[in-house]
Amino acid sequence: MVKHLNEEEFKKLVFNYEENGEWKYLGDKPCIIDFYAEWCAPCRMISPILEDIAKQYEGKLYVYKVDTDKEIKLSQLFGIRSIPTILFVPLEGQPHMAVGAMPKDSFTKAIKEIFNINPPLIIKP
């Protein structure tokens, strides 16, 4: 399931920038963070894709959303200038940033390349 994060949740689940000067991801699984706004049409286009990804990769990664209109400090911290902006956060190393709406196959490819997680097998009857 996609989880919406406010600043306090972000500091507990992703990165506590007040305690750490350098990037240190706090999660136990890789995550995708969607920086979005309610009024943004491309953001609304990728929302169902992220819901699908959260279901398909359940137990393998987290999918988070950060509302840039409500969480201005987080948006500034990551230098968000255009939305949607997607952060792919591996367990180790720096996050990878993608700007703009992406089709589902681009998300699947990024998950494979950045997180080394293969897409789940879909068995059709």
What does this entry look like structurally?
The chain is α/β, with parallel strands linked by helices and 125 residues long. The chain has a single domain (3-17, 24-113), classed as 3-Layer(aba) Sandwich (Glutaredoxin), CATH 3.40.30.10. The protein is 33% helix and 18% strand. It has helices spanning 7-13, 41-56, 72-77, 104-115; strands spanning 3-4, 31-36, 62-67, 85-89, 96-99. A 5-stranded mixed beta sheet has the order 1-3-2-4-5. Helix 2 (41-56) links the parallel strand 2 and strand 3. The radius of gyration is 14 Å and the shape is globular. The model has no long low-confidence stretch (mean pLDDT 94).
The percent range for strand residues is 15-25%
Overall helicity? 25-40%
Which structural class fits the helix and strand makeup?
alpha/beta
- From the 3D coordinates, which CATH architecture would you assign? 3-Layer(aba) Sandwich
Mean pLDDT: 94
Extract low-pLDDT stretches. Answer: none
